[in-house]
Amino acid sequence: MRFIGITGGVGAGKTEILKYIKRHYKCEIHLADETAHQVKRAGTECFSRLVELLGGEIVGADGEIDKAAMADKIFADPKLLDKVNAIVHPAVREYLLDKLGQARENPELELFFVEAALLIEAGYRELVDEMWYIYADESVRRRRLKSARGYGNEKITRIMGSQLTEEEFRRASDFVIDNSGALEDSYRQINKKLEAFTWQE
Prior knowledge:
The chain contains nine helices and five strands, in the order βαβααααββαααβα. By secondary structure, it is an alpha/beta fold. It folds into two domains: about 1-25 and about 110-195, 3-Layer(aba) Sandwich (Rossmann fold); about 35-110, 3-Layer(aba) Sandwich (Rossmann fold), CATH 3.40.50. A five-stranded parallel beta sheet has the order 2-3-1-4-5, with helices on both faces. Helix 1 crosses helix 9.
């Protein structure tokens, strides 16, 4: 089974690419944002440590961590971000490696994907068999973010500025999908790359 990391800047279209892969290949896909939510659920060690660090006011009425309250705390004291990441990132990695171990025991699965904008920075380069970079031209990404998420220019520039440059993404990746044009073009690139694996209609 092949363990593949999928990364790329905001607005590059990682979600659409993964939807296609999930539909047509024998794979398991984990999104880091969703995984981070799972490892922070009430009752986990990660939950306890975050509440200890940030205070009980980050817990919502449902007993789970309130994302907005947690973000407010970090915004008020940016030094907390590194401390939060030091709790969450190892928990996410442990969770994913556990899922990978389970997936390897399933003879039906051929591919295991993990997606995150920060995969390279979080040290997944040495864990995965391959790192894929989903690329899209900056003007295309800006257009998508404005129409799909309603982001303004300033917000887009700020987010893009906090992520790796195109050169850094490319340098750390084994395969690049150019997702600047029509999705059908991206699908052709994926099919060619994965031609050794089982295709499903």
